[in-house]
Amino acid sequence: MTLKACKKEDKMDREFQKKFKFEGSINVLTRMMVDPAATEKRGGAKNLPLRRGEILDVIQFTNQEQILCRNSQRRYGYVPRAVMLPL
Predict the structure, then answer these.
(1) Topology (CATH level 3) of domain 5-86
(2) Could you report the per-residue pLDDT of 37-78, keeping only the tens digit for each?
(3) Left, alpha or beta for 76 (phi > 0: left; psi -120 to 50: alpha)?
């Protein structure tokens, strides 16, 4: 990775921590896949856009209905647990 790419990732991580009031280091707990049968959804203010079959990094299990995830473009947001499948 180039220095510019590293700085961009660091900036995105800091913005995530500020937006979601996340403290501590960002650790990936597990990886999960979006259900291929689920409908694709646009992202919202704090929701992650969903694509069928996409693999997401799970950052935090927030509650019974949502998971805090990161996609391959290093975007963060909440995803409904109902559309997630274990790998």
Answers:
(1) SH3 type barrels. (2.30.30)
(2) 888 888 778 889 888 889 999 999 988 899 999 998 888 999
(3) beta
